[in-house]
Amino acid sequence: MVVVLPPTYPTYRRRLAISYARETHLVADVTALLDDTPGRVVVGITGPPGAGKSTLALTLAGSFDGASYLPMDGFHLSNAALDRLGRRDRKGAVDTFDAAGYVVALERVRSEYRRRDVYVPAFDRGLDEPVAARHVVPADSRLVITEGNYLGLPDGEWALVRGLLDRLYYVDCAAEVRRERLVARHIEGGRAPEAAAAWADEVDEPNARLIATTRRFCDRVLNAC
Questions:
Q1: Which one, of 140, 97, 135, 139, lies nearest residue 119 by Cα?
Q2: Which of 39, 137, 143, 174 could disulfide-pair with 118, CB 3.0 to 4.6 Å?
Q3: pLDDT tens sequence across 84-116
Q4: Are 100 and 65 in contact (CB under 8 A)?
Q5: How far is Cα 217 from Cα 66, in angstroms, rounded to an integer?
């Protein structure tokens, strides 16, 4: 079943069109993976900022009864921590997340199947902060969808992520479309148009170039434009 996201989502997400053909193919691919893989299945979705990872992940999770959602964005460092590190002006960069915490959450998700629920954080764009235990992966949830920028990165703590995923999809999109979405996102988050454009160009785009190097580590590439 195709799940239509409610109109309360931000404008940039409402404008994101996921084709029925691509979604059907993806659901079929994950269904085959579930049929072929015993136990819990963890599917990752990565790609550059503004490509449509969250929308695709939520739509995919909604296509399977009992599927759970684990966003990497929940492992953002707090603004207080970023201030201490002098990195708040680069929030979203690879070193502004608790990579080790994300790995531990994935390890727990894999080991706690049919044993206990696993609570995981989310990132609240209204607060501009991570919120603990916003999502839960129930003990009996067989399919877990996780998404984020750095799931395919082969360096540091991030290098442990790929081995914890049964499949990793790379979501791509033209740079000009991503930039339009990102500027709209930042304006909706409270930035002035000029500041929103600067953040997209000076923060988001360097991150996108790093993420693009991880494309070769993914099992499938999807276009979300």
A1: 135
A2: 137
A3: 999 999 999 999 999 999 999 999 999 999 999
A4: no
A5: 28
Sign for the pseudo-dihedral over CA of 93, 99, 103, 109: negative
Q: What is the DSSP letter of 19?
A: P
User: In angstroms, how far is CA 192 from the centroid of its own chain?
Assistant: 25
- Angstrom distance (rounded) from CA 123 to CA 102: 13
Q: Which of 152, 184, 144 minimizes the C-alpha distance to 50? A: 184
pLDDT of residue 24: 81
Q: DSSP string of 155-203?
A: SGGGGGTGGG-SEEEEEE--HHHHHHHHHHHHHHTT--HHHHHHHIIII
Give the domains, in start order, of the chain with CATH numbers.
11-223 (3.40.50.300)
Q: Is the dihedral of CA 193, 205, 169, 222 positive or negative?
A: positive
The token pair at 188 is 């909706």
Distance CA 35, CA 225 (A): 30
* CA distance to 51, 52, 95, per residue, from 157 (Å): 24, 24, 11
d(CA 45, CA 211): 12
133-190 pLDDT, tens digit per residue, is 999 999 999 999 999 999 999 999 999 999 999 999 999 999 999 999 999 999 999 9
The CA angle 122-125-130, to the nearest 5 degrees, is 35
